[in-house]
Batch of 4 targets.
Target 1
Amino acid sequence: MPLSTTSPPAGTEAAEIRRRLVADAEDRIHRLLDLETEKWTAAGGRPAELVASVRRVVDAGGKRLRPAFCVTGYLSAGGDPGSGDDVVRAAAALELLHVFALIHDDVLDDSAVRRGVETVHSTYAGDHLRRGMLGEPRRYGEGVAILAGDLAHVYADGLAAQLPPAARQIWTELRTEMIVGQFLDVLAAAEALMDVQTARWIAVCKSGHYTIHRPLTLGAAVAGRTDLNGVFQRYGALVGEAFQLRDDLIDVTGDSGITGKPTGLDAARHKMTLLLALAAEKDDRVRKLVGAPAREHDAAERLHTLLRECGVVDDVERLIQELVDDACAVIREAPLDREWREELIEMAHRVAYRDH
């Protein structure tokens, strides 16, 4: 990929170029889904329903963080915004991979709502009931959702296969870390593991690497630079942990009208979040409630209340600030032009201090 021969644009102009390339990635996704819909409609129509399920998740919105970090990695590494086909392809692949992860995550968590709309497995379970189909509605809905997620993964891999070799290697590492992190998340919930280090490692895999570090290095690799991997890894681990802690806080204190899903879901499912592990370390009542048997139907509600009362929320806010400060210190010393150092500092604050 040719590097830009001009200086990086300053301030809002840099952000505008990033927004344009992220929008181009969304257009790429919609063109791909349009072609797939046309192909499968011509083949009989019913297969196109699966493509429509992927499209509904894409169209439900989202923060587009991974494409934004990917494009930022590309531009900050000197990538030419006028020759951005590969980075648009990489950003589109990241968003489709995220769609795959969301659809499967909703099955794993048995979530009925995502981004304010019904989840794929809930939609198809309801369809099964309304139509009086054979078999179990829940199994049918989950089966369709797993296949819809797999289809999004195939589309993502198809886009990533066209990237340069160094970028493809990062793509493989990103997918592996994401899936291993998800497995550990499921395992920790089942075993009621309340270990801060394990929870932190899961946060780094699921947020640090998957959301920030790997998208940044993927974009930089498309621009032909791998020397920024160390800087982006340190920054990504710090901002990723802050991102996950904010996610945990939103589940405890957030507004469901803004988040698009009910609060208290992590407590209800006894997910071993980093916030929950820190709370269990701080207050033994939390540890006891996490191990409460399922028959204690009010345990989740009591746990949610206790998390708000035990002081861990203030502790986590302070930890988020420390993580963001450390991430900004890493970027201030990075071998990047000032404009992109400022952009990455702004992005760290944006993901750590959000309301959804």
Note: The chain has 16 helices and two strands.
Target 2
Amino acid sequence: MKTVVGDITSLEADVIVNAANGIGPMGGGVAAAIRRIGGIEIEKEAIEVCRRIDPSEGEVYVTGAGKLKFKYVFHAVTMKQPAQPSSIEIVKKCINSLLEKAREMKITSMVLPALATGVGGVPKEEVAKVYASMLGKVTDIDITVADVSGEFIKKLEKYM
């Protein structure tokens, strides 16, 4: 696992991970950046997919990446409805789902933000510990964790 302080949408990988709700609208944080740079079609597809499969917290659904240079967006459902609180247990389920989906789709690289630490309200310190323990051991997928402010990266690097 690598860490980067910077804009997650500017990195290179097969997949960019979005901390998502289970109904599709891409409102704030990383989701808003993905929509702004990748195009509204990503959000439209996310809403359509959510209507069709009704994903639960901890699950992952996939859309195209629009104008972004990634192959796919993996939407990790950290909350069912927009602006709901999340939990560290949901983050753990999301990580397992992300790894499972990546392996199923033969993905070799992904970039992800600090899931559920914004609107979801999960403490960054807790998420950093979970990332280090669950993602630090992964060798078959090149994982990069990105944070624009660097605050999460500092916490994560303490546990790596």
Note: Residues 62 and 74 are 5 Å apart (CA to CA).
Target 3
Amino acid sequence: MSRLVRVRHLGLVSYSAGLAAQRAALSAHQAALAAGGPAPHELLLLEHRPVYTVGRRQQGADTAAEEARLRRLGAEFERTGRGGLITFHGPGQLVAYPMLNLRQLGVPGPRRYVCLLEQAIIDVCGRLGVSAATSPHTGVWVGDNKVCALGIHLTQRVLTSHGLALNCSVDLDWFRHIVPCGIADKFVTSLTAELGRPVAVAEAAPLVAEALAARLGCRLVWEDGDRPASDVSAAQPITAE
């Protein structure tokens, strides 16, 4: 089974463009499986234009008024197929959509997969000098503040889409207009806020890709010109447990 993951860096795109890229990757994987050939894994790295998204657990009649209020702030509003509640995506936030076949990678199920994603982000935070951890709530946390949100979807129980959003230098004021992920007594933070220096998406992106590959036991293949340059010269190597 293939353990190669093609990494594509899409830049700053709309949420709908990110969804289209995920659908294309999923269709390519399903077509390859149907043809009996090697099915490609992909990792999409990108930033979204300002958008509030709600997951499957928060899609009822009450979201219409919320949508109108949030759109007035200048952001888009999208109902999604991922798990979880409301969150924000915008410039300065690294979004990673792993498009993987969990069966081919030997990952036993969604809980283990989410755990691997969380551990990969903890690895990245540690490499940058931020002490992060998991909590009873999904995601990666620095104290009581979430630095990385997770929301996944599985097709046919094994094909992944959606993924994670790591706050690098995103404007945290966008989150003050919502209860992020439905957790009223917590807030969010960013790598920039924790380190007291700018942390660009381009700095974090290769670290996230490398950490995911280490945790999942994969090998990365970057599309030509798609690997952002990281200037973390003093970082320690990431190793999977």
Note: The chain has six helices and eleven strands.
Target 4
Amino acid sequence: MTFDPESVRAFEHARWEKAADVYASTFAPATSQFIDALLDAVGIEEGTQLLDVACGPGLVAARAANLGALVAGLDFSAAMIRASRAAHPQIEFDHGDAEELPYPSASFSAVVSNFGLHHVPRPELALKEAFRVLRAGGRIAFTVWADASDNIAWKLLFHAIGRHGDRAASIAPPPGGGFGADRCAQVLQKAGFIDTRTVLERRQWCVADAATLVSALRAGTARMAAMIESQDPSIMPAVLADVDKHARRWRNNGALALPIAAVIASGQKP
């Protein structure tokens, strides 16, 4: 199967439309732990005009607004925009595409995206658009997950499916972009940004048990959810038992405190 941006867009759109109502209670407890570090990377302060791309339910935008920023959020999922507007009615949220931002050039002093760019079919176009809407001297920052070896939460799932199912089975089309943590600075520089930086941030994601973990990954993600749903249902009890067995070393006070890690990449428009 070859890369087709429209197939990727349709897949991602369908997934996030489905996840919109449950994302905040399932996977957001993991992604939201990196919000403050993301905003620090653009030097947010009172009056910063900030755009949150792939804003989801508006958690980054809300935090930025609480810090005094003048915020706009954008997402291609109408369901996510409805959720963000309902939760944060004081903030402007727009339905639109990261590859073709509906804003004039030089509109913002900061652009951020928390785990959004790797869901865009052509993230290089999204970065060029971010460059366009930034003012000279403005900063961009985005997060991507670090390698699976640093993210025990899904390493446990990957290994369990590898032992009992088929990790290659997936209804997801081949992704676009193809950039991981090791290429963040490169893609920023290619888009025209200078003073590029990458920082590895580590956190813990606390979940009640293995079943809660797998349920959160199935309900609140796109490609991991597709991998889970592509498995033969008969193997899922073995997968859950495997995750539970290998997660015991991270049990603390009756819950699982699972290591997660992300790279925060940032740069400046000259």
Note: The first strand starts at residue 49 and ends at 53.
